[in-house]
């Protein structure tokens, strides 16, 4: 009587992700309680030689019970050269605050960021000049939220006729752009640049801060701007 054939278990197939699993676990642990987008982790391990895909990476991250946030997709409808949108974001408060000036071109979605330790008018103007230099030109209009350094009174003269900060108004005349305000409660205008502030926080600042924190390094203005310019060139403006 012949015996039934014996089956031996197949040897485990090595995954392209295997040698990076420990790094990913530690990276996520170091970032806690912040969450690092899977796309950021993918960039980091690709710099180390990873050649696998996103599906297996997302699956492994999900197995660690860390929900992943998607990087935002932003669309604009303005024609070339017409509009730049500007906003401030605060990355850190306290004795050593860290703010970020964010500017986005409406048509190309090209992004510029600059970190500062304050949001005064003179700082705002300097950031504008640096953004125009970075973009290689001045748009016809710049869209703002209700910044105190931009607008003194909305609808001061009539609906849509605002009283702007005199220094900003003069700066606009000097550079050749018109200041505009986002329409209240209109997410399709105000929300665009706000999403880019969030994108900068999630895709750049938190990954940088949590990578340097285990080494006892605090992200200051100089460090953030040095790394930020590289991120703009290598990541943000490659979208």
TrEMBL record:
Pfam short name (any one): rve
Q: Which domain of life is it from?
A: Bacteria
Domain Integrase catalytic, by residue range, is 76-239
What PROSITE patterns has UniProt attached to this entry? INTEGRASE
One GO molecular function term?
nucleic acid binding
The UniProt entry's GO biological process terms, in alphabetical order, are:
DNA integration
- State the PANTHER family in the record: TRANSPOSASE (PTHR35004:SF6), TRANSPOSASE RV3428C-RELATED (PTHR35004)
Annotated protein name in UniProt: IS21-like element IS100 family transposase
Specify the species.
Escherichia coli
